[in-house]
Write a structure and sequence with these properties.
The complex is a heterodimer of chains A (289) and B (316). Chain A contains 9 helices and no strands. Chain A is mainly α and 289 residues long. Chain A has a domain of 197 residues: MetI-like (MetI-like fold, Orthogonal Bundle), CATH 1.10.3720.10. In chain A, helix 1 crosses helix 9, helix 2 runs antiparallel to helix 3 and helix 6 packs across helix 7. By secondary structure, chain B is mainly α. Chain B has 2 domains: 72 residues, no CATH class; 222 residues, MetI-like fold. The relative contact order of chain B is 0.14. The chains are: A mainly alpha (289), B mainly alpha (316). Chains A and B meet through helix 3, helix 4, helix 7, helix 8 and helix 9 of A and helix 1, helix 6, helix 7, helix 8 and helix 11 of B.
């Protein structure tokens, strides 16, 4: 968690040449992400059973025509809960890194561009956050704040800020002294204009690749919190809480844990793959000739 | 060298102080009264007033913090209001389990990751390298609780050869203890090796292109000696840092793994203190983990400087 330590991920994808394109695996991953996002948005319109309707006569039933992926220990439709659970996972998984990327990106730009005391303060603050094992800090904050989807987005979003700040700062340092920035400065451009017009567009590339990797990390973190019963509160289904529920029925009905596990793994893998490939493409060190 | 350690030490003080402040301030995020939340259904006005007095909740926040910090500095982290157990006692009781789990995870991770890293570096670009690197990438996407459940399903439920949730203390029965640690240890080790393997592989590929390796080969030294004696040590610098960085992730991993496998470790202490709203234990345990994590990273930094003289003289 990583939980939240995204620096571990990455590095397996070689920068693909323009000619060869991104490869089929990349597009499969993109397709899966699009599919998951689509069904999460359209969940209400799909012909699905009510995710919280209990059919006590059909508990822990295996896959059948009535329940394509079976039912859980309360007789609720697993497929429907899976689709509605994607909503929680993606809401937290996309919004928390978005929050962290906006805040961390701004801090990193300022730290890298201005240097000096501003940099010292910003880096000092991120060091304090990095001093905590991320999952432990998330657990503690959620324990006090109480679990809700908004709190999860806030807490996990803030936890991603230090890592984003570092990425943004490093990228800013790399372009700060480039000729076009010096030229803009010589022309008398304001700091604001240099930051937003000259530096930001370039820093955006590594940041968006990093954002995708963070989405993967946060989906896992949200899964862990939900699994521990500290995530999005019931009755809203989440993948993590479905897996926790399935774990108690592992010996009689392994399918209850199996399907949400597969969904979560594929989603995390897809975001990692896309993020890593984009990072390889946008990494200036590897060159994209 | 001493100058380097001194500079890092001076930086350590404000970081640790800020960690204590943040740990303390998290508690004020609680909407409503801390004493009411802790007491739950036993929150009569008298009990609440008594707990207020005991915890000093009526004082202004900064005085509460100083009071608490004074306690922390003298080794008094308070005691659970439910069981009366002191925080230090609770931590000391559970710490060995967590340390054992982390050692098993790290050793297991190295045991798988180092040979595979060397193998992939030697055969970089081969189909074996691609298969192992692909597998490593895939494993980095596996959430820890998924792997734990999979292993429980396979080895405890299907094959029935290893226990899933029956912890045996090390002092009671060494073999039984290792059996009860097998599945949780394996879960974390299987998640650990990809990161280790990948940094070793990439560093080793760089090292193998150095002149002294060509020299060693030209002298006719056997491949094994070239790899293990000449190439491994200069390639393991980043590995040391990754092990240090990983400890933060590993602590997070132990929280969930200890909960799933019912191991009485520090991680489970944290989770249980949340379930029982035992905020004194929670606060103490979080502070302990964070400070330990800062110190471990300090040691890793120093170790890294010992191994690589360039760090000592460069920007620190």
């Amino acid at each position: 968690m990583a939980a939240l330590d995204a620096s571990e991920i990455g590095g397996v994808a070689e920068a693909p040449s323009r000619r060869r394109g991104m490869g089929p695996v990349f597009w499969l991953a993109v397709g899966w992400i699009a599919f998951i996002i689509l069904i999460a948005i359209l969940a209400n319109l799909l012909p699905l059973a009510d995710p919280s309707k209990m059919t006590l006569l059909a508990r822990r039933a295996g896959p059948s025509a009535a329940h394509l992926l079976g039912t859980d220990s309360l007789g609720r439709d697993v497929l429907s809960r899976l689709v509605f659970g994607a909503r929680s996972s993606l809401a937290v998984g996309l919004l928390a890194p978005l929050l962290g990327t906006l805040a961390g990106g701004a801090l990193g730009l300022l730290a890298g561009y201005f240097g000096g005391r501003i940099e010292l303060i910003i880096i000092g603050l991120t060091d304090v956050l990095l001093a905590f094992p991320p999952l432990v800090l998330a657990l503690a904050v959620v324990a006090y704040l109480g679990p809700s989807i908004v709190n999860l987005i806030l807490v996990l979003g803030i936890l991603t800020v230090p890592a984003v700040t570092r990425v943004a700062r490093a990228a800013t340092l790399a372009v700060r002294e480039r000729d076009f920035v010096t030229a803009a400065r010589a022309l008398g451009a304001s700091h604001r204009r240099i930051l937003l017009r000259e530096i930001l567009p370039i820093v955006m590339l590594p940041l968006s690749a990093f954002f995708l990797v963070l989405v993967a990390v946060i989906i896992v973190a949200e899964g862990i919190l939900s699994f521990l019963g500290l995530g999005v509160p019931p009755p809203a289904p989440t993948w993590g809480s479905m897996i926790a529920e399935g774990r108690d029925n592992l010996d009689v009905a392994p399918h209850i844990a199996f399907f949400p596990s597969i969904a979560m793994f594929l989603t995390v893998l897809a975001f990692n793959l896309v993020g890593d490939t984009l990072r390889a493409v946008t990494d200036p060190k590897r060159g994209t000739s | 060298m001493l100058g380097f350690i001194g500079r890092r030490l001076i930086y350590l003080v404000p970081v640790v102080l800020a960690v204590t402040a943040l740990t303390f301030l998290i508690a004020s995020l609680l909407p409503g009264d801390l004493a009411v939340a802790m007491l739950g259904d036993q929150a009569t006005p008298e009990n609440v007033a008594a707990l207020h007095k005991k915890l000093g909740l009526d004082l202004p926040l900064w005085r509460q913090y100083l009071h608490w910090l004074g306690g922390v500095l003298t080794g008094d982290l308070g005691a659970s209001h439910r069981t009366g157990e002191t925080v230090l006692h609770a931590i000391a009781n559970r710490l060995p389990v967590t340390i054992e789990l982390m050692v098993i995870a790290e050793l297991g991770g190295l045991l798988i990751g180092v040979p595979l890293g060397i193998l992939c570096a030697v055969r970089a670009g081969s189909s074996l390298d691609k298969a192992v690197s692909g597998l490593a990438f895939g494993i980095l996407s596996v959430p820890p609780f998924l792997l734990a459940i999979l292993l429980i399903f396979l080895f405890a439920l299907r094959m029935g050869i290893l226990p899933a949730t029956s912890y045996v203390p090390l002092s009671q029965d060494v073999l039984g203890n290792l059996r009860s640690m097998a599945l949780p240890g394996a879960t974390l080790a299987l998640l650990e090796w990809p990161a280790l393997m990948r940094v070793l592989r990439s560093d080793m590929i760089t090292t193998l292109q150095e002149n002294f390796i060509a020299m060693a080969r030209a002298k006719g030294l056997p491949q094994r000696r070239v790899l293990l004696v000449h190439a491994l040590k200069p390639s393991s610098l980043t590995l040391v840092t990754i092990i240090g960085l990983n400890i933060g992730r590993l602590i997070g991993g132990t929280v969930i793994i200890e909960t799933i496998f019912a191991l009485p470790g520090l991680g489970r202490l944290i989770v249980e203190s949340i379930y029982t709203r035992d905020f004194i234990i929670l606060q103490g345990a979080v502070l302990f983990v964070a400070v330990a994590f800062v110190l471990i990273n300090f040691v890793v930094d120093v170790l890294y400087a010992v191994l690589d003289p360039r760090i000592r003289h460069g920007r620190a």
